[in-house]
Each structure stands twice: as structure tokens, then as C-alpha cells.
């Protein structure tokens, strides 16, 4: 069996989960389930990013100990990940003692590429990164994402000598040795890489206490991204264990806002450790609420728990994997969600299962010899292999709609009425077969619904007692 390793970005613990956080998990989970169905042995990592000044500030505001604060949030996120039906195998919290110890070992391994220097320039606490003079000018001194003025900083930091890796990294990106998806982001990253100075990878402990101490220098704490990015390999046991069976990752899923860290700093760190680069970085778009970025101040943050509690996990995954584009920014509105639920999930799929199972059982058709489909079509595979999950989902939905169309054309009820028993049996078997074919391809997307559907047609056909997707 081939081993495949899939990763998700680990969210900051400075707030509660919102629907945007679900994207990494849903996409990575589809990928992991798909690869497992193809016969691969798959590991899927998940976890939480618990260090950094934003988190310490939040705990301060609430007047609670930072560790208590992150313990509580990490629990909320873990429940959320479980609720999404994510099939993760490995879990990391950046405050795990083993993670901190391994990150310090990683720092030691990078030592020859690290130097200490004075920094004078701009910093954004929201982005937790230094800002180049060019960016400062372009944005007129205000962070466009956080709408806060950049802060002037003057301090000593450790730097990772990016220049040691630039040429090699440029080549890896250009030749797709590390494939960046979607393709148009590759150009952006190459440009950024060209312009990137060496990376500051520590902060004075006077500025940032809540982080992993730099080994052998108690005056400095590691930059949160060095700590966080390392999670992908500390969770596998690196450097204490040989991770070559699992690393490089097959695909790392991240939002477009953090692609730059994954496409520049992370590969530089890996090269510095002598480790191979991930095979693919898949960067998804942002989920917007009513056309706007979700934010607490606008008050348009959508709680995923509310959606799942009301409509169930299949409906949640259905919408976010099909109607939220895999790569581009897409909009969530309750109206769009409810329309998709009622018109598509409930009508196209739920009713189909009900109708077909009822006809099969009423007419006493034995379908045991159909052993269900267990193959992906080549069109589906092609889309899935390119990480075009929303398109692959569209394709499967066409198949589902195709079964509905066939029922309308063949009119099995007419065949029953005319007493054409043999033709009716063949017709129903064909319809069930078509549905099970589509259902198999639904498995990575809607694992819970598709296993219920497979059960309905397994052996003695029993129509569901309650609709799979009750209309809202
Ligand atoms: N802690 C870092 C990631 C470290 S990975 C080594 C971080 N955390 S985050 O909480 O801000 O974001 C976590 C993930 O959620 C990222 O992939 C980010 O792009 C994604 N999203 C956050 N808001 C989002 C939307 N509104 N829409 C889609 N994805 C969003 O960045």
C-alpha cells in the first residue's frame, strides 16, 4: 500500500470556529477519503496553533491564564473538527510538550542558516509579520487585512537566511517539484520570493512571552510561524523519528491568505533540515458572508455549529464542498444554503433514494446480485487528482440527476401497471446500479449519507423510514 500524508492548517486559538475554518478540514478530508478508497494508506493531520501575541492578548483581555484560555479553545476546536466528520489520524497542539521540544530541535538543525541582527522597520501584530518598506508604502501604513496602522519596531531578532535557498526554491516552484494550486498563484509566489528579504524568526521575550524559547538564548522567543509550520512534521515524530515513510506530504491544504508562509518560509525550513518539499500546496479561497469578509465588528460571523445542528453534517459538507468554490472566494448566505438543501439534496438525492427503494421493494425485485459499484470513473478521477473537488462534485451530481431523468423517461410505474415484470426488473436494477455508481463517488464528500444509501440497497431493499434529508 502506498502511504499518503495530507495536512490542514492549524487555526489560531484567539476565537471560536467560524465557517471559513471548515474549508481546510472539508477539503483535506475529501482528499484523504478519496485516496483511502483508491487503496492508499492515509494519514491526515489536524491540530491547533496556540502561541503568539494575539492569543496572549486575548487571554489578558479576559483576565485568564493563557494556558487555561488555550485549553478551553482547543477543546472547542477539537469538538468542531469531530463534528465535521474529519477522519484525522494525527493531532497536534502547539503547546504539547513534545511539539515544543521537537521545534527546539528543528531550530538547532537550522542553526547554520540562522543569524542574529538588528531590525528597524514595520510590523503588523494582526498578521504577525514584518512589513517591507514597499508594502508599507503601497498600503499607506495601514494593514489592509486588519485595518490597523503598522507599528514601528526596533529590535534584535534571529533571521533565517532565505538567500541560502532562494535559487533552489525558485526552481522547485517553477518546475512544479512543489506544485502550487491553483496555478495562477504560482506567479504571485515567485514574485514574492524574488522580493523577500531574510526572514525574522524570533522576537525579544520582552515583546512576546507566549511562545517557544529559542534554544540557548533565553532573551528570544520563536516567531509563531516557525513554531506552527513545524507541526506538520513534529506530529509525525520528527526529528526523533524517521518520517521518510510519510514525508513529503502528498498535499497540504491552506487558505490563500497563508500560502506565502507555506510556499516560502516552510520550504526554506525544510531545505535547511535536508527534508524534501511537499508535493502539492493547495490554496483555497475565502468564504465570505453576504459578500463581505466575516468579522466580529461587522457582526456577520456564521457559526458552523448552528448550520450543522440545524441541517446535519451531510448538508454542511454538501454546500461547502460543492457551492463554495475549491479555489476562488465564494459567498455563504442562508438563502443559498437552504435552496441547495431543499432543491438539490432533498429533491435530487433524498427523494430519489426514497422513490427507487420503494419501487424496488414494492415490486419485490431482488437486486442481491448487484454488488454495488466500487470504481471511480476516469472523468471523476481526473478532476479529483487535480484537486478540483467542487467540479468533481458537480460531475457526480449530474450522475444523480441522470438517474432521476432515466426514471422519468422509462416510467417504471407504467411497466408495473402493464404487467411487464421482466422489463420492470431490468429497468429497476439498472437504475439502482446507476445510483450506486454515483453513490460510490459521493463517498469522499458525504461519507455519512452515502453509507446510509448503500445500506438501503444492500440485500433486502428497505426504503428509509424517515427521509434522508427532511425538507426545511
Ligand atoms: N494559525 C495559522 C495557520 C498555521 S498553519 C501552520 C492561521 N490560523 S487561522 O485561524 O487564521 O486560519 C486557519 C485556516 O483557516 C487557514 O487556512 C485560513 O486560510 C482559513 N480561513 C480563515 N478564515 C477563512 C475564511 N473566511 N474562508 C476560508 N478559509 C479561512 O492562519
Verbal overview:
With 472 residues, the chain is of the alpha/beta class. The chain has a domain at 299-456: Orthogonal Bundle (Isoleucyl-tRNA Synthetase, Domain 1), CATH 1.10.730. 48% of the residues lie in helices and 15% in strands. The chain contains 18 helices and 14 strands. The strands form 4 sheets. Strands 3-2-1-11-12-7 form a 6-stranded parallel sheet, with helices on both faces. It has a 4-stranded antiparallel sheet with strand order 5-4-6-8. Strand 11 (251-255), helix 10 (259-273) and strand 12 form a beta-alpha-beta unit. The structure holds 5'-O-[(L-methionyl)-sulphamoyl]adenosine. 5'-O-[(L-methionyl)-sulphamoyl]adenosine binds at residues 9-12, 20-21, 23-24, 49, 228-229, 231, 254-255, 257-258, 286-287, 294.
Amino acid at each position: 500500500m502506498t502511504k499518503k500524508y495530507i495536512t490542514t492548517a492549524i487555526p489560531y486559538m484567539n476565537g471560536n470556529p467560524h465557517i471559513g475554518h471548515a474549508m481546510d478540514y472539508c477539503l483535506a478530508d475529501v482528499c484523504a477519503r478519496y485516496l483511502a478508497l483508491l487503496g492508499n494508506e492515509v494519514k491526515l493531520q489536524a491540530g491547533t496553533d496556540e502561541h503568539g501575541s494575539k492569543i496572549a492578548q486575548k487571554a489578558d483581555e479576559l483576565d485568564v491564564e493563557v494556558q487555561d484560555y488555550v485549553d478551553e479553545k482547543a477543546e472547542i476546536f477539537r469538538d468542531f473538527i469531530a463534528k465535521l466528520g474529519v477522519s484525522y489520524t494525527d493531532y497536534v497542539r502547539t503547546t504539547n510538550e513534545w511539539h515544543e521540544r521537537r521545534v527546539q530541535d528543528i531550530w538547532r538543525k537550522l542553526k547554520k542558516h540562522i543569524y542574529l541582527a538588528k531590525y528597524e522597520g514595520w510590523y503588523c501584530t494582526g498578521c504577525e509579520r514584518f512589513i517591507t518598506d514597499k508594502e508599507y508604502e503601497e498600503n499607506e501604513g495601514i494593514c489592509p487585512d486588519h485595518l490597523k496602522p503598522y507599528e514601528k519596531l526596533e529590535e534584535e531578532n534571529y533571521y533565517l537566511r532565505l538567500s541560502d535557498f532562494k535559487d533552489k526554491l525558485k526552481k522547485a516552484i517553477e518546475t512544479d517539484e512543489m506544485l502550487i494550486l491553483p496555478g495562477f498563484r504560482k506567479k504571485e509566489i515567485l514574485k514574492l520570493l524574488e522580493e523577500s528579504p531574510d526572514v525574522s524568526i524570533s522576537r525579544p521575550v520582552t515583546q512576546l512571552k507566549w511562545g517557544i524559547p529559542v534554544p540557548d538564548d533565553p532573551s528570544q522567543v520563536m516567531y509563531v510561524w516557525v513554531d506552527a509550520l513545524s507541526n506538520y512534521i513534529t506530529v509525525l515524530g520528527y526529528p526523533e523519528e524517521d518520517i521518510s515513510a510519510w514525508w513529503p506530504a502528498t498535499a497540504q491544504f491552506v487558505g490563500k491568505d497563508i500560502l506565502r508562509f507555506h510556499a516560502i518560509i516552510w520550504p526554506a525550513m525544510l531545505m535547511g533540515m535536508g527534508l524534501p518539499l511537499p508535493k502539492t500546496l493547495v490554496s483555497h479561497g475565502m468564504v465570505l458572508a453576504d459578500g463581505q469578509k466575516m468579522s466580529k465588528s461587522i457582526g456577520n460571523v456564521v457559526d458552523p455549529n448552528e448550520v450543522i445542528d440545524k441541517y446535519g453534517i451531510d448538508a454542511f459538507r454538501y454546500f461547502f464542498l460543492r457551492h463554495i468554490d475549491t479555489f476562488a472566494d465564494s459567498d455563504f448566505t442562508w438563502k443559498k444554503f437552504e435552496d441547495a438543501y431543499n432543491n438539490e439534496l432533498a429533491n435530487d438525492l433524498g427523494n430519489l433514494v426514497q422513490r427507487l427503494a420503494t419501487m424496488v421493494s414494492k415490486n419485490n425485485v431482488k437486486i442481491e446480485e448487484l454488488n454495488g459499484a466500487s470504481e471511480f470513473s476516469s472523468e471523476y478521477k481526473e478532476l479529483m487528482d487535480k484537486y478540483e473537488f467542487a467540479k468533481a462534485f458537480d460531475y457526480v451530481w449530474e450522475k444523480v440527476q441522470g438517474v432521476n431523468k432515466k426514471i422519468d423517461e422509462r416510467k417504471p410505474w407504467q411497466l408495473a401497471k402493464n404487467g411487464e415484470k421482466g422489463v420492470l426488473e431490468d429497468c429497476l436494477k439498472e437504475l439502482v446500479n446507476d445510483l450506486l455508481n454515483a453513490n460510490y463517488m459521493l463517498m469522499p464528500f458525504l461519507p455519512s449519507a452515502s453509507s446510509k444509501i448503500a445500506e438501503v440497497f444492500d440485500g433486502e431493499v428497505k426504503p428509509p423510514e424517515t427521509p434522508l434529508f427532511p425538507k426545511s
